[in-house]
Amino acid sequence: HYIDDGRAVGPPVRLNALISHLAEYMLMKVSCHIVSGCGFSHLNRVKVRRPTSWLTLPDPKHAQAVFDILGYSEEHAPGRDVKTPGVTRAGGVEEPEELDDRTASLYRSAAGSGIYLASDVEPITFAVKELARGLAKPNAEHWDDLARLGRWLWQHKDYLTENAVDEQTIAAYRAGETLTIRCKHDSDWASSTVDRRSTTGIRVTIGGFKIAHSSGTQPGLAALSSAEAELRGMSKACCNAIFIRYVARELLLETQVVLEGDSTAAMANAAKLGPG
């Protein structure tokens, strides 16, 4: 809190001051104060404010676009259910056949819809990332992966997320205390059958409230061990958390970063001092 005319200024007043300041430099669209019970549409998502959480219903047109491309409808529903939206393939001996131009174009369109949807539907993040890797030269395996994602989305057409913050964090925020950014990270090793690259998954929360999530193929040369893959994942997670910390600081919110991982080898390497 800072002092204005002898009074301690709380978060709502500070936020209003920030909006007024930004409005001097850019054209802004500012809503009224959003309180518990408010519902509105943001980028075609339906968002509802609750006392300590947000409800989010994704834009249904993206899932519908995938269904239309795959030919799924109430009359022609997909077959068996699937437990996960994506899988890690073991890799075959023969190279899968590439899709023809028309089918490849449909695949790219469906994958694009999946990319938009993944920002609201966290469980499909890895599956969509794998679909995106096949955009350049989609083949029959990529189409099978798209069909699996479509079956999962069909089972979860009414998918709804509730993003909540715990009461302890609310009390700490109101008291002006330093909050904790928790960045969970994990990596596999050499999961890609094409180039043996690893995948890093990241989830960032403050008081249980999710700030960001991602799933990405590690760039550069393939990691030579699981410890190296985990260390790369930890480094990426740390960069993301520090970025979020500085964004929070722009909003006059002081935070500290805690990384959470399960690799003792990566933690041991990260704890070393010196140029190595």
List keywords for this structure.
disordered N terminus, 276 residues
Radius of gyration from the alpha-carbon trace, in angstroms = 22 Å
- The helix/strand series, from N terminus to C terminus, equals EEHEEEHHHHEHEEEHEH
Cα end-to-end separation: 41 Å
**Global structural class:** alpha+beta
Main sheet properties: 4 strands, antiparallel
How many β-strand runs?
A: 10
Q: What is the oligomer described by this structure?
A: single chain
User: What overall form do the CA principal axes indicate?
Assistant: globular
The side-by-side strand order for the widest beta sheet comes to: 3-4-5-6
Rounded mean pLDDT is 90
Q: What is the helical fraction, as a range of percent?
A: 25-40%
Low-confidence stretches: 1-9
Strand content: 15-25%
Distinct helical segment count: 8
Describe the structure.
By secondary structure, this protein is of the alpha+beta class. 39% of the residues lie in helices and 20% in strands. The protein has eight helices and ten strands. The strands form three sheets. The chain has a four-stranded antiparallel sheet with strand order 3-4-5-6, with no helix packed on it. A four-stranded mixed sheet has the order 9-8-7-10. Helix 7 (226-250) packs across helix 8 (264-270). The protein is globular. The two termini are 41 Å apart.
